[in-house]
Amino acid sequence: MITLMLTDPFMQRALLAALLVGVTAPVVGTYLVQRKLSLLGDGIGHVALTGVALGWLVGAGMGLTPNDALAIPGAVLAAVVGSVLIEVVRRRGRTSGDLALAIMFYGGIAGGVLLIGIAGGSAGNLMQYLFGSISTVSDADLWLTVVLSAVVLTIGVGLRHALFSVSHDEEFAVASGLPVWALNVVVAVVSALTVTVAMRVVGLLLVSALMIVPVAVAQQVTHAFGRTMLTACVVGVVVCVTGLSITYWHNVSPGATIVVLAIAVYAVVSVVAPLVTRRSPAHDPHPDLPDDVDLPAAATERAVAAAKECR
Amino acid sequence: MTETREPVIEARDLHFRAGASHILRGVDLIVEPGEVVALLGANGSGKSTLVKTLVGINPPTQGTVRLLGEPLTAGRRTTVDRSRIGYVPQRANAGGGIPSTAQEVVASGLLHGRRLALPRGWRDRVAAALTQVGLADRVHDPVHLLSGGQQQRILIARALVREPDLLILDEPVAGVDVASQEAFATTMRRLVDGGLTVLVVLHELGELEPLVTRAVVLGHGKVVHDGTPPQARRDHDRAGHRHQHPHADDNTLGEQARALDLEVRP
C-alpha cells in the first residue's frame, strides 16, 4: 500500500515538498520564537496573499496562461517587502511590533481580496493559496521549493551562531560590532521565503503553525537552543510527511491535517514530558559556597545536613 | 599594549538625549592602558548610559568616542577592533523565548565584527571562560534556571571568552555573594596583571577596591570627580549600618538602602 503511494508521481512531488517544508519551517520558526515574534509568519502570510493577487493581476494584464503564472513570484516579492518593512518599523521603534503586525494582517487580506476582484477573479480563487494545494504541485513548483529551501537552510543553519547572538541579546550583539541590522533583515527575508515555500503545502493561513508548533513541541523536551532547533525539525518532518500520507487514503485537507497532527503531538508531549523528567534523578542545584554571614554552630550543622539531603 | 600609548578609551564632550531628557551633558573620559577605572555615581546619574554610549549601543547625540585609538562611528564602518573589547551589561535580559545553555550564551561572546561563525576550539575557550567565573560544571545547564548571581557570572564569562584587552563592566557584582565577589576580584587581579584595562561601573568599591587605580564619579550627567577613589561615607560602617545588595528580586527597602550606599564623597 505504501509502495502504491510512493510510486504515484503526484505523491512523490508532494512528499518531497512536504519534507522540505517540514525541515525549513521549524529552522526559521526557532529564531522567530527566540525573538518573541511568533506571529510574524502569519503577518507575512497575509501580505503574501496581496502578492498572489498582484501577480494574478499582472499576469492577467499580460494575457499569460494560466493567469496565475505570476502568483508565486508575486507572493515571494510581497512577503519579502512586507517582512523587511516590519523590521524597519521595529527598528524605528515608533510603532510596537505587535501593532505593526496587526496592520499587516488586515492590509494583507484586504489588499488580496481587492486586487483579485480587479483582476477579474473572485475571492474563491485565493482559496488554494489560503489553504494549500499540495496535490497540484508541478515540477516547476517543486524546483522553486527546492531552491528556496536550500537558501533558507543554508542561511538558517550556516549563520546559526550569529543569528542566535542577535536574537538572544541584541544590545550585546551591537556592542560586539556584529552587523545587527543586516542579520535582522536576513531573518525577515528568510521568514518570507519560508512562508512562500510552505504556502503550497499548508496554505498561507496555516504557514505559521508549521514554523511555531514544532518549536513549541521541542521546548517541552529540551533546554538548549541548538537542540530545540534540531528537535523541531524532526517533529516538522514527521508531521508533514505523516499528515500528507494520511490524505492519500482519506479525502481531507493536507494542510489542516498536518497542523492538527502537529498540535496533537504538542498536546501529547506536554502531558508526557513532565512525567518523564520527574522520574529522572535531580542533581543538587545549590552550589556549596560559604555564607556571607557568620552562622551559629547549630545553623552550620543544619546546613551540612541539608547539603547531604540534596545529594 | 606595547605598540600604543594612546588612551584605550577617549570620550570627548559626550552628550546623550533620550527624548526630552538630557542624560549625558558633556562627559569627558580618558582611560589609559592598564588602568582600572571605577565609574561611580547615584542611581540615574548616567553611568549605564555612558557605558552604553562607549560601546556603541547608544549613539551619542553630540561628541566623539575613540576606542583603542580608533573612532567609534555609528553603523558598521567603524575600524574599532571589537575582538579586543569585552562588555558586560548590567543584568541578564530575560533572554529570548527559547532556553539556551551556558555554553551557547558564552559562545556568542566569540562572535564580533565580521566574525559570524565560531572559531576552532570554541568549546575549550568557552569552558575556560566558565572556569574563570567558577561555573565550569554548569556548561550544559539552561541559563534561565541559574540564580541571578550565577547569570551575572555567565555574562562576565561571555565577555572574557574573547580574551579582551579592554573590559567594560556595568555593575558586575550587583547581587553576587561575597565569596563569588572575592573569586571575581582574584580573576580580575590576574587579568589586570596581564595587561587588561578595565572600566567598571560600581555602586561601592567592595572587593575590587585594591585593584581600582582611579575613580570617576558622575553626577547629573557630568563628571563631578576624577581622581583617587573616594572614601566610603564616614557613617558607612557605623554600628547598625546594614549593607543591602541589590538583586533581581529587590524589594523597595533594598532600593532605598542602595541609594544610600551610593553617596560618596568627591
TrEMBL record, chain A:
One cellular-component annotation, GO: ATP-binding cassette (ABC) transporter complex
Compartmental location: Cell membrane; Membrane
Keyword presence, Transport: yes
Membrane topology value: Multi-pass membrane protein
Record keywords, A-Z: Membrane, Transmembrane, Transmembrane helix, Transport
Lipid metabolism is among the record's keywords: no
Superkingdom of origin organism: Bacteria
Gene Ontology BP term (one): transmembrane transport
InterPro entries in the cross-refs: ABC_BtuC-like, ABC_TroCD
Bilayer-spanning residue ranges: 14-33, 45-64, 70-89, 101-122, 142-160, 172-191, 197-217, 229-249, 255-276
SUPFAM superfamilies associated with the record: ABC transporter involved in vitamin B12 uptake, BtuC
Subcellular location, principal: membrane
Annotated Pfam families: ABC-3
Family: Belongs to the ABC-3 integral membrane protein family.
Listed name of the protein: Zinc transport system permease protein
Organism: Promicromonospora thailandica
UniProtKB/TrEMBL annotation, chain B:
Cross-referenced InterPro entries: AAA+_ATPase, ABC_transporter-like_ATP-bd, ABC_transporter-like_CS, Metal_Ion_Import_ABC, P-loop_NTPase
Superkingdom to which the source organism belongs: Bacteria
Record's protein name: Zinc transport system ATP-binding protein
Family (UniProt): Belongs to the ABC transporter superfamily.
Disordered as annotated region, ranges: 222-266
PANTHER family named among the record's database cross-references: METAL TRANSPORT SYSTEM ATP-BINDING PROTEIN TM_0124-RELATED (PTHR42734:SF17)
GO molecular function per UniProt: ATP binding; ATP hydrolysis activity
Coiled-coil ranges per UniProt: none
Keyword set, alphabetical order: ATP-binding, Nucleotide-binding, Transport
Organism: Promicromonospora thailandica
